What we know:
Structural class: mainly alpha
CATH architecture: Orthogonal Bundle
Low-confidence stretches: 237-252, 289-293
Helix content: over 70%
CATH class: Mainly Alpha
Distance between the termini: 34 Å
Largest sheet: none
Strand content: under 5%
Oligomer: single chain
Amino acid sequence: MKESLGSRLFDAGNVTLLSIVGLLALFPLYYVFVVSFTDPSEYILKQGLVLFPHHWTLSAYKYLLSTRTFINATGVSVFLATVGTVLSLIVTSALAYGLSRKRLLGRRVIMLLILITILFNPGIIPHYMLIRNLGLIDSIWALILPALASGWNVILMKSFFDNIPVELEESAAIDGCYDIGIFVRIVLPLSLPSLAAFGLFYAVAYWNTFFNAVLFINDNTKWPLQLVLNNMLINSSTSAGGSAAAEMMAEQTIPTETLKMAAVVIAITPIVLVYPFLQKHFAKGVMLGSVKG
């Protein structure tokens, strides 16, 4: 069909408007990236908007990566994002698979308990008292165990497992495969799109861990990257605490703003690099887990 003039004008206007909105959304990221590579003397001289620096430098990144506080925080965030994501996927997939099998005793009761955790939040004080009574204050596991499984993710993954034909499991059982073997050798390989999607959810959540760290972690050597970055943005310095401040360089020749932007770039780079590899599984995994056909 030949498009009318009005339809073509609408499409052109729509593309133009969306392009402008996209550029406006990308400009803050571009500015953060550019300032992080700007030469300190040039930034101090301009004291304003830097759209394209004349001299590019890695001095801000070298400074940050030479401080023990920033290195420790990066290591903590990497540990949370890797170990936490793996454990969360194991717990979530195992629980969802068990709930998807109708022969599980107490299946409805467990589902009801999971729904209660989604609808009702106990609050900050009971949460803190639970972690304290478990002896997890100032422990990295205080940032992993409370977020080990999301009730919403469990329900979505359960819906995905419901779509797997029971005949596959029955055939494996006839061949002498037990429940764990069926789960590991048959169910999980068929669930890779769903695991990739939920793995991305968990990895982003662990990498961006902030509020739980504020509540449960007092030792600044165990602070994740987001908490150190927050202190940098608030205090306008690279100091992450009294003892950490002594480890910083005595004379700071790099502008604080440049250090902030470099820290932001380092914080967002891992997720930006991982997302393209999981993007092809993202939409497929979420749809398979949310629609029962």
